[in-house]
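Input sequence (343 aa), recorded before submission:
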Amino acid sequence: MRIHLVTAVWGEAFTQLYLSTCLPNQMTSSNLPALAAGAAPVYKVYTRSQDAAVIAAAPAFRQLAAMIPTEVIALDHLFASSSHSDNALLTMTACHRAAVDAANHARAALMILPPDQIYSDGTFARCLEWGLRGCGAVVVPGIRLNKEGCEPLLSGRATNRSAVLGASGRSLLAWSMPRLSAIARAMFVDADPFSNAPTHVYFPVGDEGFVARCLHLHVLFINPRRRVPLRYGNFDTDYLLDACPSLEDYHVVGDSDEMLAVEFSPAGKQLGQAGAGRIDTRTLAAFYRLHGNRLHRGFLQAPIFMHTGDLTPRWREVARRSGDVVGRALPPWSRLMMRVRGS
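Predicted structure, token format:
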């Protein structure tokens, strides 16, 4: 299987985070090495010229280049455009658009690797396994952490750095739970104020973790059923309807034991977490209507177990309650499908 691994990264802060922490995490034993042993990957970095030189010279990237073919692609025209230079989201989308076009030309699958995200060990091997089974896409929640709270790990001063970067899902989640960002904390169902942008809703299970219901999920792997361009919007929005239109093509990772993705968000980053009051079904329903399509509403049908210990009957009860809460915010057909699927 041909796979293009894609990272779009620019700017000193993100480039250093990527090179010091995220890329070493990707190179742990059951991630990139496992992928290289079972597929034909090409690793593509989309950036600008001044950062391309730094990336290509970095020891971690040279180690990567000795493992698999790499390309560092400077898209300087994006940064010269005023419409992109002041809007990181537009620039990211333009990079992903170029990556989709290249993968379509090569008939390759895609793995989208944000430069501020790390994974539990075995994540890439599992993506390959699902791809070889014929799965169209693997989607996971990206759990946001407070970047400043993770500073010892990011600076290389953490005594358990190697253990965290090569951790199992349970160990990585246990390390992450005390470091959740304000964005993530506002998405807990008992938060006050609750998020104004609840792409996820988290239902706590004591201090053991939480059950997540997610409208938007990160597309970690996709082998498009239809070779179409990324026309507009983020990679995880309407492109999915074009490339893999059937919900049956998606593997929603429902258990953090299988794989876990966490990302580092600066404390000052605001994504609607400053809500007004507790969770309200009408507000949640309005958000789902405005910001979700039928695939996203399908993702909500799956309870996702984020746990640091063994699952007990208590978890199933919380999952059932989570389905009740989210179901009340969905249109009748989606509620019916949740009942049919036993979610």
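Checked by second reader. The chain has a mean pLDDT of 93.
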